[in-house]
What we know:
Elements (H helix, E strand, L loop, with lengths): L9 E3 L21 H10 L4 E5 H4 L8 H18 L2 E6 L18 H20 L4 E5 L4 E2 L7 H18 L5 E4 L8 E2 L4 H10 L6 E6 H6 L4 H10 L3 E6 L18 H14 L7 E4 L14 H19 L2 H9 L3 H13 L4
Parallel strand pairs: 1-2, 1-10, 2-3, 3-4, 4-6, 6-8, 8-9, 9-10
Antiparallel strand pairs: 5-7
Bound molecules: D-xylulose (XUL) and manganese (II) ion.
Manganese (II) ion binds next to loops.
Amino acid sequence: MPKYKGEYRFSFGPWNIDEGADPFGPAVRRPERLAKKIKTAKQLGFDGVQFHDDDVVPDIDTKTPAQIAREAKRVKRMLDNEGLQAEFVAPRLWFAPQTVDGAFTSNDPKCRKYAIERSRVAIDIKNIIEAPWMVMWLAREGSYVRESKNPRIEVLQIRDAFNELLAYDPTLMILVEPKPNEPVDSAIIPTIGHAVGLGFLTDDPARVGCLVETAHSVLAGLDPADDMAYALAFDKLKSVHLNDQGGLKFDQDKSFGSFNLRRAFNQVRVLEEYGYGRHGEWVGFDVKTMRTQKQRVNTKHLANSRQTFLFLLDKVATLDKKIEAQLVKARDYEELDRYILCHLMGVKY
Ligand code: XUL
Ligand code: MN
C-alpha cells in the first residue's frame, strides 16, 4: 500500500533562481548559468524543470531553426545527464517589441502573426526536450484601456491561435495558466473557469488543460484549493504553480505556505484526495528568491517550498478521518475548525 494516494514529481523553472531586480531597483545577485540551475534542481531533490522557450534558447528571435534545434538538444543532454525531465515549455509572448499590445490579441495583424510563429518555435523546442506540454500564460492578452480592444473578438482570436497550434502539432497539449492582471490591467482569461471554458471553444478540447497558480487565484479573489478542485472536476488540472501571496497586491510568488499555511494545507488536501500525479500531473513551484537573500542562499525558497509541501502531505494523511466525518455529520463546523487548527499546530486535540 503506498503511503499517499498521489504520486508527486516536483519541478521549478530557471526564472525561480533570479537576481532580485524589481521595478524599483537593479539586480542584487549574479546571474547563474542554466547548467548550474539544472544541477541545483537535482541536488534539491526535484524531478523536472520547467522552461520558457528562451530559457532553452536565449535570443531565440535571432536564431535559425538549425541553431535552435542544436541548442535545444544541448539542454536535453544536460537534463538527461542529471536524470531530470522537462515538464513544459512556455512561449515568452510578452517580452518582444511585437507583443507590446498583446500577442494573439494584438491590434496589429503582423504582431499576431509573430505570436503564432514564435509559439510554433516553442512547440518545436518542447518536442526536442520531450516536455509533455506547452503552458500558455496569456500575459498581455487583455487591455489597459477597455475600449482599445473588442473583448469578444479577443477570446475568439485566442481560440483561433490555439486551433492553429493544435493543428501544427497533433500531439500538442496546451495548458492555460490564468492570471487576472499584471502586466495588463484586465486580462481576458482571468480565472480557471475562463481557462476551462476556453478549452471547450477549441477544435480539440481534450488537448487543452489548465495550470492553477496559488498567487493568481488569490489575486482574482478566489481560493486556490477550490480553483484546483474545479479544474480537477473537469479532468483539466495537469500542473500547478504552488507559491503564496499576501492579499491583493503585486504578484509576490512567496514560498509555498509562507503566508497562509491553512490555505496551503487545503491545496495539498485537494491534490492528495484526488490522487494527483497518477496521470502524469506535476507539482511545480513558481516561487521567487527574496530580494534580500545573498548569493549563496539563493535557492532556500525552493527547498523550503518542497519541504513544506511534504510536511503538509503528512498533515493531510494523518488527519483523523473518523473525527472529521463525525463532526461533519453532527454539522459541528466550529469544532471541525478547531480540530483542523489543533492538527496543523501539532497540539493535542
Ligand atoms: C507569471 C507566471 C509565469 C508563468 C510561466 O505570473 O506565473 O512565470 O508561470 O510563463
Ligand atoms: Mn506561474
